[in-house]
């Protein structure tokens, strides 16, 4: 794991290269204040004050230089100077004006590399100075949490099966003194039959399991964080085409989000009783794979007609949500790479939020705006509950026709959440298809920073 603490330091007046961050609206006025050598360098570089313009500015001596970035992002954006965190030479920097604040996060993440399979050439750190040293530790913590999501999602399924996901949870629990419980293989048949059904076709050593961590004072309010842990999704007997299977190593992205958020809760020692639940399975194909038309039992007692083996995530989440609800939590958050319909509706960057709790919805949406980590509320439309009707069971897992796919998936999950419990479902993509500053192509955390803000605000330490 990258040591993000190497990229930030308290500003004690030590030598550092100045980084000028200029808004396009201030470009003309700023340029007029610069000495002739700077204006000449800017003219030679062809800069016009458009967002993204960047160059090196000469100083009075040969070794004396500064950096320039034209940026129209808000000062509260974590990505404001992320492009410079990756592009500038190793060294120590400070903003020419103001404090970096939230931008420290993007500066750190711009220097993170996923190097499990390909080692990048070693290079020195780019250190950013801040006059707000109290922000360094929480920034480093968040950067590490986001990097954890990215690294887990980027890891190939051959190296991250249910057992390896269990190892990740166990290591996190050991670091914070949490209690680990794992129910796996045939043990799932009676207590978690839908998790067992989905994962039973996997090879030996990749048996399905429900991984649980409990941490914190039992007298504190109980919260449950649930994450979909499908380590690879072939689609089952309703097999995906090869193009649809290509990125299915990322189908455990919800588990990665849940694991990262749980780590933040424990590291910050929020006054809560934390319950982390990750149903971990591989949706594989073999002679004992669950079939279209099978009627599955569930932990809650509802029977589910399996109309699509590629709608497996909601099945394993159903059992996990049932278990989470049995301990009377005051809040349940679940993260899942659940539906392609969510991507069709909102694209990769904007996860849909589903909740019946108006206060929770308001808090999450406001946190998304404040943290530049947006989501969009979509309806748990009661009238569409009829789409889940089955002729032979209590419900189907996937309605015919494909209408409102993200909504009906969320409605399915709602049936396994106790009434009256504040619950939110986030249908995250967990993948960035194109790179942006500080955000490389590949695994990505969405709504994690917003969810963390809500937990901190609700349960201040």
UniProtKB/TrEMBL annotation:
A GO molecular-function descriptor: aminopeptidase activity
Highest taxon of source: Bacteria
Keywords in alphabetical order: Aminopeptidase, Hydrolase, Manganese, Protease
Domain Cytosol aminopeptidase per the UniProt entry, residue ranges: 308-315
Annotated InterPro entries: Leucine_aapep/pepB, Macro_dom-like, Peptidase_M17_C, Peptidase_M17_N_1
Pfam families noted in UniProt: Peptidase_M17, Peptidase_M17_N_1
Family: Belongs to the peptidase M17 family.
PANTHER family membership: LEUCINE AMINOPEPTIDASE-RELATED, PEPTIDASE B
Protein name, entry field: Leucyl aminopeptidase family protein
Lineage: Bacteria, Pseudomonadati, Pseudomonadota, Alphaproteobacteria, Sphingomonadales
């Amino acid at each position: 794991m990258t040591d993000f603490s190497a990229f930030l330091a308290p500003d004690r007046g030590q030598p550092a290269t100045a980084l000028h961050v200029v808004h396009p609206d201030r470009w003309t006025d700023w340029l007029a204040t610069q000495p002739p050598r700077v204006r000449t360098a800017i003219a030679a570089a062809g800069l016009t004050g458009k967002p993204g313009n960047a160059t090196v500015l000469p100083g009075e001596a040969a070794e004396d230089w500064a950096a320039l970035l034209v940026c129209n992002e808000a000062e509260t954006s974590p990505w404001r100077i992320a492009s410079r965190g990756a592009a500038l030479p190793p060294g120590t920097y400070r903003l020419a004006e103001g404090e970096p604040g939230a931008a420290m996060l993007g500066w750190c993440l711009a220097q993170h590399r996923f190097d499990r399979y390909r080692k990048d050439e070693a290079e020195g750190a780019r250190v950013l100075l801040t006059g707000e040293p109290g922000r360094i530790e929480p920034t480093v913590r968040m950067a590490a949490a986001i990097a954890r999501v990215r690294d887990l999602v980027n890891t190939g399924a051959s190296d991250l099966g249910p057992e390896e996901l269990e190892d990740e949870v166990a290591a996190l629990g050991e670091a914070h003194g949490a209690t680990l419980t794992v129910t796996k293989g045939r043990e799932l048949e009676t207590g978690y039959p839908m998790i067992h059904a989905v994962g039973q076709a996997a090879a030996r050593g990749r048996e399905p399991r429900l991984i649980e961590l409990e941490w914190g004072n039992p007298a504190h309010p109980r919260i449950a964080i649930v994450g979909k842990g499908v380590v690879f999704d072939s689609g089952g007997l309703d097999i995906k085409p090869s193009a649809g299977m290509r990125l299915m190593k990322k189908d455990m992205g919800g588990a990665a989000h849940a694991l990262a958020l749980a780590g933040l809760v424990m590291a910050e020692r929020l006054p809560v009783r934390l319950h982390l639940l990750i149903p971990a399975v591989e949706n594989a194909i073999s002679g004992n794979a669950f079939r279209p038309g099978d009627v599955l039992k569930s932990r809650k007692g509802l029977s589910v007609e399996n109309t699509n083996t590629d709608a497996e995530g909601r099945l394993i989440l159903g059992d996990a949500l049932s278990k989470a609800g049995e301990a009377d939590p005051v809040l349940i958050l679940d993260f899942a790479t659940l539906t392609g319909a969510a991507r069709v509706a909102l694209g990769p960057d904007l996860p849909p939020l589903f909740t019946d709790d108006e206060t929770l919805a308001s808090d999450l949406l406001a946190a998304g705006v404040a943290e530049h980590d947006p989501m969009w509320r979509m309806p748990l439309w009661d009238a569409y509950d009829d789409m889940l009707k089955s002729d032979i069971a209590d419900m189907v897992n996937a309605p015919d026709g494909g209408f409102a796919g993200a909504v009906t998936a969320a409605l399915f999950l709602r049936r396994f959440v106790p009434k009256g419990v504040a619950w939110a479902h986030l249908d995250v993509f967990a993948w960035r298809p194109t790179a942006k500053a500080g955000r490389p192509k590949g695994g990505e955390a969405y709504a994690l920073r917003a969810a963390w803000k809500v937990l901190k605000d609700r349960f201040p330490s």
